[in-house]
Design a protein that fits this description.
Layout: H1 8-14, E1 26-30, E2 33-36, E3 41-44, H2 47-50, H3 59-69, H4 82-94, E4 99-103, H5 106-124, E5 131-135, H6 144-150, H7 153-156, E6 166-169, H8 177-180, E7 185-190, E8 193-194, E9 200-201, H9 204-217, E10 220-224, E11 248-251, E12 262-266, H10 268-271, H11 287-300, H12 303-327, E13 330-335, E14 340-344, H13 352-361, E15 364-365, E16 367-369, E17 373-376, H14 384-401
Parallel strand pairs: 3-15, 5-6, 5-7, 7-10, 10-11
Antiparallel strand pairs: 1-2, 2-3, 4-12, 8-9, 11-12, 13-14, 14-17, 16-17
Helix pairs in contact: 3-11, 4-11, 12-14, 13-14
Length: about 400
């Protein structure tokens, strides 16, 4: 039986209008290359929004998936799950964590982390200690709790009322932070590198003050590494570079290499408050997802791969700075490993939409951040030659639009 052919008209007819995808329809992918239905080739600088951490159809991930698919696809959590336990051991070996809870998406991991923090405070400190502090321009997902944490009108408009108990403080602002983090705060949740805002790093003094106030007020620190984790910033997780040890950490996206999986990581002391029945999931810890993620995490813990991320970052920065020198097109170039933001000097005919559209037309896939920044998040093992070819396309687009 021939597969059903789909078009953009079908998308508009059958899908909820929550997305506005590019006009081409991808049909296959390999490594850092994608082909559409017309067999046009694209260099992938997006990796599914920092998800395909080892590129498309990596042979070792393919093998892990196929091997597990012949054994078992699904188990409920009333049974022990070997792939999940093996994966949990890897996380605990290579991070601060002692206990792991598996979920399906970053937003679910954030929800689980908030529940865990509040339950710990309720059981161990005070039944009134339930406040959560988040920061401006954050992105923690699309669930009701997550958009409340984001603190942005564009995310919450029309979806109220929002969950309560949340204070939103300006990111990287130490002034008045002590008024936000108090004895009634259960946890602070922070992205150490804000991706949606344009690759903005937390400042050292900001982190130090958060740590001080959290210690004084017995407040847990939740680090959201949904995008910054899995080697994206050049270390296995970004917290290793910021001098902060999380009490709870959320991760997803790149840990599955393209398979939906997420995790909440914490300590034994904190995990004790989450007794049997306090949280759960149907598909979290799925054997197929865990088998693939086990292979992903095994590969990502190799020093050679992580050192390669830093070397490839330097290639990107060198070439992007050269483009900017010639065309004065960026007001800022920011990076954290293979996570790069180029803030555009926007003009009437030169903006994110025009650049993205032209990049697609010329065979390059890039991302947006905020409303004025090109976001680049390729596979962590993208070939140097493809980096240069992709940036040559970007240079051509900019030369045509911003000579």
């Amino acid at each position: 039986m021939m597969p059903i052919m789909v078009t953009r008209t079908d998308f508009n007819r059958y899908m909820m209008p929550t997305y506005n995808p590019a006009s081409f329809i991808p049909s296959k992918a390999k490594g850092s290359l994608v082909w559409d239905k017309k067999n046009k080739k694209y260099i992938d600088f997006a990796s599914g929004i920092a998800v395909s951490s080892l590129g498309h159809c990596h042979p070792e991930l393919n093998k892990a998936l196929v091997d597990q698919s012949k054994k078992m696809w699904h188990l409920s959590n009333v049974l022990m799950n070997e792939p999940a336990i093996r994966l949990a051991k890897i996380f605990c070996k290579h991070t601060f964590a002692e206990k792991v809870f598996f979920a399906n998406s970053g937003a679910e991991a954030v929800e689980g982390a908030i529940k865990t923090a509040r339950k710990f405070a309720y059981e161990n400190i005070s039944k009134k200690k339930n406040g959560i502090v988040s920061f401006s321009d954050a992105f923690h997902g699309r669930t009701m709790m997550a958009i409340a944490l984001n603190g942005s009108e564009r995310f919450v408009k029309g979806f109220g009322p929002m969950p309560g108990g949340i204070k939103n403080h300006p990111f990287n602002e130490t002034k008045n932070l002590e008024k936000a983090i108090t004895k009634n705060t259960a946890a602070v949740i922070i992205e150490l590198v804000q991706g949606e805002a344009g690759i903005i790093k937390a400042k050292k003094d900001f982190i130090q003050k958060i740590k001080k106030l959290c210690k004084e007020n017995k407040v847990l620190i939740i680090v959201d590494e949904v995008q910054s984790g899995a080697g994206r910033t050049g270390t296995l997780f970004a917290y290793e570079q910021f001098g902060v040890k999380p009490d709870i950490m959320c991760c997803a996206k790149g840990i599955g290499g393209g398979i939906p999986i997420a995790a909440v990581l914490t300590t034994t002391k904190i995990a004790k408050s989450m007794e049997i029945g306090s949280h759960g999931t149907t598909f979290g810890g799925n054997p197929l997802a865990c088998a693939v993620a086990e292979k992903v995490m095994t590969l990502l813990t190799k020093k050679m791969l992580l050192n390669g991320v830093k070397k490839k970052e330097k290639i990107f920065l060198r070439e992007l700075q050269s483009i900017n020198k010639d065309h004065k097109c960026f007001s800022a170039i920011r990076s954290s490993g293979l996570w790069i933001g180029c803030k555009l000097n926007v003009t009437e005919n030169f903006n994110l939409d025009t650049v993205m559209r032209a990049c697609y037309e010329n065979g390059l896939m890039i991302l947006k951040a905020n409303d004025n920044t090109i976001r680049i998040a390729p596979s962590l093992i993208i070939a140097d030659s493809l980096i240069l070819k992709g940036l040559k396309i970007l240079r051509t687009v900019i030369q045509e639009q911003h000579p």
